[in-house]
Amino acid sequence: MGGVDLSLSLDSLNVMRLEEELTALASHGAPELYCAVSDGRFAPLTGHGPQLLKGIARRGECPVHVHLLCENPDAHIDLFAEMGCRVLTVHVEPVAHIHRTLTRIREAGLEAGAALKPGVPLTRLEYLLECADRIMVLGAEPGFSESIPVGAAYDRVRILRQNLDYLRLNASIQVAGPVTPLQAARFAHLGAHRICVDLGAQDGVYPTVSEGLRSFREELERQMPVA
Asked: Could you point out which of 52, 62, 79, 121 has its C-alpha 20 to 30 Å from the C-alpha of 87?
C-alpha cells in the first residue's frame, strides 16, 4: 500500500463486543491499536482505563500503541511496559529531560515515540530525532476533535521527512487525527509511514470494525495514484 501502514484507534471498537472485534481483527492482519490516554491536565481527559489496555495488550494479537498526554510520563513508563504495550509516545512540551524519558522508554523494551501539539514549532524536535523510533504529527489538538488546517500537517510531515533523510535516521512518521483516505494518501506521498484511523470520524456505517478498516484500506489504495 505504497509503504504506509494503518493503526486503528481503539475508539473505533465497540467495547460491548470487544472480544469478538479483537478476534476478528486478529484474523484480518492484526493491526496496531492506537489509544490516547490523558491525565486531564496536559490535555482534556480522554482515553481508556489501564485494565482495559492491559487486557487487550496481553491477548497478544494486536500490538498496542499508547499516546500518553500527561505532564509526567516518566511515572507511567514501567506501568505500560508491564501491560505489554508495544509503543509509548510522549509529548515533548511538558518534559524537562525528554532525552532521558525517550531513552527510558527504549530501555523498558518499548518503541519510543515523540509528539508535539500542532502549534508547537518542529524545532523542538531538532536534537531528539535520533532518540525516537517514531515522530507523531497531530491533525488536531489533543483531546479535541476539531482538525487543524490540513496543509499545516502536510508541511510538518514533509519537513520531518526531509530532516530524517538528511540526518540518515530511521525514525518513522505517524499521523494521528481526523484523516480521510485521500488525506492519508497525500501524507504517505509526503513521507508518512503510518496513519491512525478513527472509523468514527469517517463517512459511512460499517457492520464490523474489520470491514470498516478494510474499506479504509481499499479507498486509500484507490487514492494513492491521484493524491
From this structure: 121
